[in-house]
Amino acid sequence: MGVFSTFKVATRATLSPVTIIISISITMVVAQAAHADDKQANDLEAQIKELNQQLEEARAAEELAEQRLAEIEDPSSSDIKLGPVTIGGAMRINYVSGDYVKSGDQPQRGGNGGNFELDTFRINASLDYEQLIGKFEYRWYDGYSFLHTGWVGYDYADGGELQVGVTRVPFGPGAYGVSQSWFFDQHYYLGLADDMDLGAKYLITKGNWNLAFAYFLSSEGNWNGASEDSARYSYDTVKWTSGLAANGDVIGAAVNGYEEKNQFNLRAIYQMQHHAIPTDIGFSLQYGELDGVGAEDGDHWAASAHMVNSYNNFTLATQITRYEINISDDNPLGTDKLIPMGAYDFAWPVATMAWIPAMSLSYKYTTTELPWLDYALPYIEYSSIVKDVDEFNDSEMITLGAAWAHHGWYIYTDLVHSNGNLFIGNIGDDYSNISDGVGDFGVVGNDRWNTRFNINFGYYF
Questions:
Q1: Which of 13, 44, 101, 372 fits a 20 to 30 Å CA distance from 249?
Q2: What is the mean pLDDT of residues 299-328?
Q3: Is the Cβ–Cβ distance between 230 and 424 less than 8 Å?
Q4: Rounded to two decimals, what is the model's pTM?
């Protein structure tokens, strides 16, 4: 679930310490040779020759390092250029081993413990023509596919940018919330990180402020899959054909649920880049309506405070979010405490009111001395869904992992431990009964901790 990102090396010295030391040594030896007898002069000349050889080797190593840094800053790309349009893509293969056991209608991801499986194939394109810009991305998975991104926009002379279409909702400290891992944090599974919706977004930088204003007509919609309404990339409130009543009884085949509409977003981030510890501190606000299908209409809101601190190669990202989804009891689950949300061709109950604390600590290590690796990014992350209902257990997730980058390759290695994430572990022995753990983002009646080890191999072209 993660995404390939590029980076830039901010500064580097013109001469390495080794080169400077060798140069000083040569100067000192030459000075001694000027006042030495013949034998001493011969010995000193030999030293000068050896030091000169070392200097050449140091300079050659320095040039190689410069070349490696240049490759990292501007990696070669096999993207296809068609005038102002650039076409690329990616293929990802996944290895999983853990407590997850696939059965019935549970999600397709993670079902083959200890085996490799195709994760995704995608095609993407970008438009850059004078001030016209745009992005497009479509993804294929095992049994379903969907549009990830599809917008056109305008780049204004004052630095503002307008995007219209299926674009990312501005909520949280960055595109992927606080997370660096392939699994993201729990914000993603509640539609509050890396969420794609259909609407218009305006971005502008004013002084130290980065501002985003957005209106979304609807979610990104349902595409091609087996589910009623969940063949989509990001989590939204959705419709389904068979829900679960509060007593565990299965509701009939009538289509019911909710569709998002008329959502407004505001995000403001203040950048303090000239402090001892560069910091971005900000807030995000969201409000939208819910169109009930076989249920009364509702609404939802979320508010978040977030901060990103950087020190040398360390990055600490923290976020605290409050969200509430207001619905009546006449809904697919027969309670206003749970609502169906779906993505990746699968829907599941989610708690309607909760707090979400999340944090991520990462370290970027640039490996210019290794020809087969550009950088490594180890990280540790924690997030939780702290629910208002006392009978609902919290949904926690801890991730220890690293990302590895080399040109078009981007590989995630993650060890994840969770008591409330259906991609990590078993969602309950009998998920036809809410009281027995239905909805890892909802009740989590069994409160069971599960572990998953995951490697995601991605090649981006």
A1: 101
A2: 97
A3: no
A4: 0.80
Nearest to 136 by CA among 187, 178, 77, 85: 85
Q: Which residues contact 175 (CB under 8 A, 6 or more apart)?
A: 3, 168, 194
Under a CB-based contact definition with an 8 Å cutoff, are residues 1 and 183 in contact? yes
Q: Are 396 and 420 in contact (CB under 8 A)?
A: yes
Helix (H, G, I), strand (E, B) or coil at 367: coil
Tell the burial category of 230 from Cβ atoms under 10 Å away from its Cβ (0-12, 13-18, 19+). buried
Which residue's entry shows tokens 């969907």?
146
Cα–Cα nearest to 296, from 323, 258, 251: 258
| Rounded Cα–Cα distance for residues 257 and 259 (Å) | 7
Give the up-direction half-sphere exposure of residue 106: CA atoms within 13 A in the CB hemisphere: 24
Pairing of strands 314-326, 353-363: antiparallel
User: Which pLDDT score, from 0 to 100, does residue 15 have?
Assistant: 47
Phi/psi of residue 247, each to 5°?
A: -90, 5
How far apart CA 188 and CA 192 sit, in angstroms, is: 5
Structure tokens at 280: 């971005």
DSSP state of 22: H
DSSP string spanning 217-234?
Answer: EEE----BSSSSS--SSS
Q: What is the pLDDT of residue 51?
A: 67
Helix orientation angle between 17-33 and 38-73, rounded to the nearest 10 degrees: 160
Could you give the 3-state DSSP secondary structure of residue 416? strand
152-165: pLDDT as tens digits: 999 999 889 999 99
Q: Two tokens at 408? A: 């078009």
- Long-range CB contacts (within 8 A, 24+) of 65-69: 65/16, 65/368, 65/369, 66/12, 68/368, 68/369, 68/371, 69/9, 69/12, 69/366, 69/368
Q: Tokens representing 194?
A: 């890396």
- Token readout for 2 is 């993660």
